């Protein structure tokens, strides 16, 4: 056999090792027949089929082709809160992590658990959402086995000063993690979307939880949804959204094997490092974050339609994006040449305008 197989391993474990080894070979395009597996392990074809079915149930992706046999494609990539928590600890930051196979919404779950508990630095992570949503209650498509969905509860001493800065920090955190793990540069569409080569790969929803007695925002729940792989978007959504791996594959790039647990840990580490620096008064560090947020702007120099959501002018209007302020406000020039700073609302432009 091309790989050493320990005699104490089960048939399933032996077959997995052989499949992984053959997948690296150019011969037969990485395939090995069921007959050859049975012959080399001195087991029946039925035993081989049983082991393959069991591996697939465990989440291993194994391709089968007539007259070629089987080929190992990928490992299971289940969301694991303990693994994420351990990785974050290795980076020198503490964060409790709860994971779910599926949940209605990680933001909803975070709210439920904060009703009767004082939580801080706790992340709720899921591999699937049945009621994922973004700003204004818009649906956020959150299928199983393709994306990463999590919410972080952050409760700084003295309350949340500026929720918009938390959203900006979250966007930068995602961009940094994608750059480090995939080697890809992302853009940010103010205020809460991350784009890769013209397609939205990530949405961010920051919700401040108010204390009506003190008239302050006690803590924030920062929700992040990322399209990682196999997005299968259809209709109008396919024109706007995409996944990291699908976009890279369409451009003929080699896709690194990045477990979703690792991607999640990297983003949470970046988030907490950025947030802590802001609330600890590390002005130079946080200025670099805002400078990066500004440099990654997808909208700077473009003409957009401003759709106010809270306060200010009720009707939509056209404006040119000039810059982003130190407080993460969008600075625009209106048609009458007046300058406005937007702290809330939405901006839109044609998909063909998205810079790559």
Describe this structure in words.
With 356 residues, the chain is of the alpha+beta class. The protein is 33% helix and 24% strand. It is built from ten helices and 14 strands. The strands form three sheets. A seven-stranded mixed β-sheet has the order 3-4-5-9-8-7-6, sandwiched between helices. Strands 13-12-11-10-14 form a five-stranded antiparallel β-sheet, with no helix packed on it. A hairpin with a 4-residue loop joins strand 12 and strand 13. Helix 1 packs across helix 3, helix 4 crosses helix 9 and helix 6 crosses helix 10. The longest helix is centred in the middle third of the chain and has 20 residues. The radius of gyration is 24 Å and the shape is elongated. The relative contact order is 0.10.
Helix-strand layout with pairing:
Layout: H1 11-23, H2 34-41, H3 45-57, E1 61-65, E2 69-74, H4 81-90, E3 96-100, H5 106-114, E4 122-126, E5 147-154, H6 163-182, E6 187-189, E7 193-196, E8 199-211, E9 216-227, H7 235-240, H8 244-250, H9 260-279, H10 283-295, E10 303-307, E11 317-324, E12 330-334, E13 339-342, E14 346-348
Parallel strand pairs: 3-4
Antiparallel strand pairs: 1-2, 4-5, 5-9, 6-7, 7-8, 8-9, 10-11, 10-14, 11-12, 12-13
Helix pairs in contact: 1-3, 2-3, 4-9, 6-9, 6-10, 9-10
How far apart are the termini? 48 Å
Helical content stands at: 25-40%
Strand order of the largest sheet: 3-4-5-9-8-7-6
Average pLDDT reading: 89
What gyration radius follows from the Cα positions, in whole Å? Answer: 24 Å
Q: What form results from the Cα inertia axes?
A: elongated
Strand residue content: 15-25%
The beta-strand count equals 14
Low-pLDDT windows of residues: 351-356
Q: Count the DSSP helices.
A: 10
